[in-house]
Amino acid sequence: MTRTVRFHELGGPEVMRLEDVDPGEPGPGEVLLRVEAIGINRAEALFRAGHYIEPVKELPARLGAEAAGVIEAVGPQVAGFAAGQAVSVVPAFSANDYGVYAERALVPAAALVHRPADVDAISGAAVWMPYVTAYGALVEVGGLRAGDTVVINAASSSVGLAAIHTALRVGAVPIAVTRTGGKRRRLVEEGAAEVIVSERDVSGRVLELTDGRGAEYVFDAVAGPGVTDLASAVAPGGTHFLYGALSGLPTPYPGFDLGMPALNLRTYTMMETTRDPQRLARAVAFVTAGLRAGAFRPIVDRVFPLEEIVAAHRHMESGTRFGKIVVTTG
Prior knowledge:
- Residues 11-327 form the Enoyl reductase (ER) domain.
- This is NADPH:quinone reductase-like Zn-dependent oxidoreductase.
- By secondary structure, the protein is α/β, with parallel strands linked by helices.
- Helix content is 27%, strand content 27%.
- It has ten helices and 16 strands.
- The two termini are 16 Å apart.
């Protein structure tokens, strides 16, 4: 038996319970992981509340798709991994099938990444989801190049910060959008070329900064009614990525209201990258090179013990964090 977070009903953070559960033995393609640290993601809060793009199929349900730990046992048909190895888990599976909010958990080997010796567990649980998400959309799919401009909202989130660093890594110009001016200084320190407070005229400022052309990319975690304003600041032929829906409001298609510009509007989830072995290998190579060069690093906002998982989720939903929230098991 191992301490595992489960929820028996949909709702707020308070529905999560820490229970003793048998993790089971690894089956074909699976490993049993001793979890050391867990990366907390907005998708888990949405799944817990019943608002995620994938509904909860059965209760009680588990949570968690990102972690770092040590392999305890390997199931049949697993190649490249062995007991005793330090690894990270990247989100590459359904929340209805696996969950890593636990001291020990089964995970598919296809979701594992070897953890370098100089990357500790907290860093190993905080680095992959943000950077693979940013790389997968902007570089793998979008083809972000040196000199391009990318507008990044929810810029103080772990993915937003990774997008800033990713843009800088390829020589692009990151413009950060944040809800309040309180995070401006830190966003500039992380490399944002400009910080725009979203209460103001975001599109107008983007057009001003780009001499009227607009940004080649918008990396949008918020969606909702504001998508039309942001889309109006996309350069001809540019791409507006929608990878989240933090607004919680319906998202209109902006193309007709804007006069049918040459706009590419595209949804993206990191599963496009993590479930494709070749794309994932390229992402791992890109992120690993960035880590070795010092261009990439996990930015951890706060660390909570597993016993305080409810407080960790409440902090995530408070909107005050800057970077990643991590939960440790020991």
